[in-house]
Amino acid sequence: MDHPRELAGTEPRVWDRPVVSVPMLVCLSLVGGQLPSFSASANLYTLGTGGALIWLGLGARVPRRPAPRRLGTGAVWWLLPVAVFGVFEGTTFVLHAGDDFPTFSRLADPLLEDELVRSAAWFAWLAAFWGLVRR
Amino acid sequence: MMRALAIGGFVIALALFAAVEWAARRPGSRIPSLADVCAYVMRYEVGPVPVGRIGLFGFWWWLGWHFLAR
Fold first, then answer.
1. Structural domain boundaries enclosing B5
2. How many domains does chain B have?
3. Do B3 and A100 make contact, defined as CB atoms within 8 angstroms?
4. Which of A1, A92, A123, B43 could form a disulfide with A29 if both were Cys (CB 3.0 to 4.6 A apart)?
């Protein structure tokens, strides 16, 4: 399998510039924000946009920023928020107490029913995904 | 009471994510940013297979599907 390597320093393509990519992500997010949960269209749209980004990310079509060769000892600080989140998500999930002791996704569901919040969540998800593709 | 505890716990976790990211972006910080941690994880390969990249993409894809389609 031939792997694309980091292409840092190369001239970005037109569609890879923020002036193009950000409006594109905004448009995709606005469409995604209109699609209700549990609908076939929302499922297909999520699978389609995510699949396209994975296809871009696994190929050599998008220039990548250089990745660090090693992480410093300071990286262990990231375990703190991960552990706190994991403890609460794990406990709420295992106890299965519904709204009395809700999981993170159960708390997020009512917020995501609003189209504007849903579009903002779509944008955050797609922008982070695009960031991963370029790393 | 338990509901407030859960909300408080998640808020603290999110605040910690923001605080560590803020600390990582300070000049001369020894803490790598979340993007650097992800990039490092994505370097991991088993033979010719980019396992780290596939794993992180898969996780993020599932997360979006879970929150935005389910």
1. 1-29
2. 2
3. yes
4. A123
